[in-house]
Structure formats: C-alpha cells, structure tokens
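2024-03-11 09:14:02 INFO receiving multi-entity request
2024-03-11 09:14:02 INFO entity count = two
2024-03-11 09:14:03 INFO echoing inputs for audit
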Amino acid sequence: MTDELLVVRAQLGERAALAELLAQWRVPVWTYVRRMLDADRADDVTQEIWLAVVRGLPRLREPDRFAPWLFTIARRSVTDRLRGEYAREQETLAGDDVATEDPVEAMVDRAALMNVLSELPVLEREILVLFYLEDLTVEECAYICRIPAGTVKSRLSRARRLLREHLKEKGYRP
Amino acid sequence: MTEEPRLSAQDMIDRLAPVLSPRVRIRAVAALLAGVGGTVFVGTLWWSEPGPLPGRTHLAFALFTVFCLAWATYGGWLLTRRVPLFATDRVIAAWIGLAASLATTAVVTVVAVQRGTGAGLALAVGGLFVAVALALAVRAHARRAALLRRMHELTGREER
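2024-03-11 09:21:47 INFO inference complete, emitting structure
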C-alpha cells in the first residue's frame, strides 16, 4: 500500500492505517535521528517526532508528500535538541549558498559512511543522512532543510569531501 | 553500525494512545461546547435581568462567565494543540456543535421571552452560533468526502 493511501486512510481516522504508517517509517526516522544524536536522546526525540506527526496529520494537505513533511518535523525536533551546535554551524555557512557542480561520484560505502558520520559537522552529517541513507532527492532535501537546491548540492559536495578526508585518515582507499 | 530502535512499532503506538484516545477527544469537545454554551446562557441571563442588580450579583454573573470561558478555552486548546481530530471526528464534532448551538439558542430564547426582554438579540446571537456550527459541519463533510474520493481513486489504482 502506498504512503499516500495510508496517509489518506489515517486522516479519515483509521487507527490501523496510522499503525501501518508508523511501522513503515519507524526505522528510517529513527535512523535519521540516531545519526544526528547519541543513542540516549534518539529514542526520546523519535517519540516526540511521532507525537508531532500524529497531531499534525489531520492538517497535512498533500498526503503524497508525506516523507518530506515527516522529515521536516524530524529535523525540527533534532534541531531543537542540537540548538547551540546547530546555530554555530548555520552561522559559519551563512554565505555558503553558491551552487556548485555535483559530479557523479563513486557510490558511498554505506558501512564506512555510518562509522564516520558522527565525526562530521551537523549540517554535512544531516545532508548525507537525508540524501544517502534516506534516499531522498535533492529537491526533497531542500524542502526539509529550507535551503535552495543549489545549497543542498554544495553542502553535499562539501560533505563528501569531508567524508573522503575522514575515510583517508582512517586508512580507507578509494 | 547495526543499531535498531529500542521501541517496537507497538510500543510506539501504545505510547501514543493518550493522544489517540476517544475519551480525550470527547472530553475536549464537551469542554468546548459546555464552555461556549454556558457563556452564552449566563451572558443572556445577566443581560436580560429586568431590574438593576446589586454589585454582588454582577460579580457572581461575571465569575460564572469567566468560569465558562475558561472551560471553552481549555476545550479549544485541547482540540487545536493536544488532540488530533481526524476527518470522521470532525464530522461528528461539527454535528454535536450544531445540536448544542440549536439547543442553547432555544433555551436562551425561551428565557429571554419569559423575562419579557424580547427574543431578538437571543435569536441573533444564537443564529450566529448555529451558522458557524453549520459552516463547520459543511466543511467537515466536504473534507471527509474529498478524502474518501481520493482513497477510492488510490485503491482502484492499486487494484489495477
């Protein structure tokens, strides 16, 4: 069953559809939160996110855009927890809105990515998680992070560069 | 990293149960309706008192009105912030609201007529409440119908 159908049924008030939606998105949401926060906070924040999702679901006007909406809520909850660290990152990158080319690079090794993610700055970590781990498009990442698509691309490019440096330091060879 | 969420989907649903509980929704709608209905009723009694009132009676009416407004605010806050009303809930809530508006209008009009203060104002205020409740009912039905239509479209597409 598609997400849109589940969302519509949940909006009508079907508990089973809501449960199915939650079962389907529980792990992706938790994965995103866990990559951004430590394990102790991840469960708490995940629960907050689902609470906000259930409260906001009746007002969701575009059921076919459930995933970006869900991750927007997730991002807000994570940002609230990371506020200090996040604000500093935003300031540093305030002028970094220049779109750069996004060359097709070699596939990022998922396992290696997971290991070094926690060492990356918040914004780069976030964009890698959304784009590579959650398989969202550049446009969806832009919608979730409230930045232009060009900034998503430049941030992704910077994130990949940082990731490559970290991997090299750890002895991985491309 | 091969971590898994510690809470299962069922655990998560269980933790969301208070938000999804029908009892909380009924409580919220009841608080809102009782608050609004009470405010209108007490306000009408206060306004339609034939003679001049002593200060203490004014104070008592004012306190009753504040009390009813507090319940209405609490119900409204629950419905807008804490408890989600899904499409079917909205339809039910709108009809309850319409019935309550009609009942309050009838009672208030009868009281006003009995006290000889005329039914005009009571009917005007009651009519306003009825109109708002009716508009909310129409909107709730339209939203539910749109969702049902979309659900049938999507179900048909999946079956094909």
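2024-03-11 09:21:48 INFO post-check: The interface with chain A takes residues 1, 3-7, 9, 12-13, 15-16, 19-20, 81-90, 144, 147-148, 150-151, 154-155, 158 of chain B (CB under 8 Å).
2024-03-11 09:21:48 INFO post-check: The first helix of chain B runs from residue 9 to 20.
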